[in-house]
């Protein structure tokens, strides 16, 4: 033997791992090892040779001997735990596995990997009843653990099956206070894809954490669309409500609502909008966000409520552009009526953005607002060129007397260029009042007509009953 082999660590590696060494010799070497534990190299050699020991009786003896040692004897306790965990994975004997579980339980506070080991093992199928009892006893009786250990467990199992998530959460619940790191690690567990019971446990734990920071509340607000129902959102809102006076928190709530406003049921919708309502007239960011969210609300009653909350707290001029955009997109006639009545009182001369919207309504045959739009646009026909084509469209194709009268009054205002064919269409229209037809004829007379236009006028007048219109 060389010098290394003659040394005790060398003998341990050579003899205990050998298939050919006699049992008596192995027992003697193991006894020597027990007598020289003051030498760190001896313990290291035992750890290293353990996987190579094929004799079950000897392997169990080495394992139980090592596991009985105080971890202070090991230069690096993790080496011991690695060896014991590896031994457990290879061991088939149930009693040995159970004994090893209780040994690992004693050191669970010393190494995060032991926490993960017990959590993952709890979800392993085909465990014996004593093994399950040992695992549950370990997890249920964990000492007060550090925040870092709880964070590590939560982060590792954020996407794991529900059982593993539950065990990780059980671990985290043993922390007396949830700081920012633990709070952040628990946040993914509120996701709607997770088990409702797990989400409720997280919410209850957060509710117990009375002194939550502004940053934590903002983070909670941002999770609102993804937390699902089953009371989770109500609990979240109850946590946020006392802090609504803080601008950043209420802005986060408004943004979270607008991210996906269609996911909330009636109660959740009412709770959120009622929390934001007092600030809609004071905070322009909140008002704009809520107005913008209307387009994504599928329920008309919800759209109507948000619209009412905003418009009763702000002057129409302050939110005119968003209101017009909503009016253009809206399909519910009752809401369109609310929006139209909100903006029609404004001066078209002072708010040119109204012109295109009113002109579109005027030329839409099915719009209930045509007569009102005709009266509003007629007064500014000489100011906005886009009004004239809208008036001409009505004069060419419509038969409603009041509508035609209003449009003709606007069309005949000074400064508005007149088209012969438009005026001639009014003259020919026997369904409207005679006075309007006469005004159109008088306007034609003032035009410089070419021969074809004169002939067209003569043909039109020849078809009209005598003495209905005066033509000189």
- The portion of residues assigned to helices is 55-70%
Order of helices and strands: HHHHHHHHHHHHHHHHHHHHHHHHHHHH
**Structural class by helix and strand composition:** mainly alpha
What oligomeric state do these chains adopt?
A: single chain
What is the typical, i.e. mean, pLDDT? Answer: 85
Strand content: under 5%
Poorly predicted segments = 1-5
Individual helix count: 28
Q: Shape, please?
A: rod-shaped
Radius of gyration: 42 Å
The counted number of beta strands is: 0
End-to-end span in angstroms? Answer: 139 Å
Largest sheet: none
InterPro entries: ARM-type_fold
Protein name: HEAT repeat-containing protein
Organism: Chitinophaga sancti
Task: Please describe what this structure looks like.
- There is one protein chain.
- With 472 residues, this protein is mainly α.
- Among the domains are: 248-343, no CATH class; 345-472.
- 63% of the residues lie in helices and 0% in strands.
- It contains 28 helices and no strands.
- The protein has helices at residues 3-6, 8-16, 23-35, 40-49, 56-68, 77-90, 94-106, 112-122, 129-140, 147-156, 162-172, 180-186, 196-208, 214-222, 232-240, 247-259, 266-276, 284-293, 300-311, 320-329, 333-343, 353-362, 370-378, 387-397, 401-411, 420-428, 434-445, 451-462.
- Helix 8 (112-122) packs antiparallel against helix 11 (162-172), helix 10 runs parallel beside helix 12 (180-186) and helix 16 (247-259) runs parallel beside helix 18 (284-293).
- It starts with a helix and ends in a 10-residue tail after the last helix.
- Mean pLDDT is 85; it is low at 1-5.
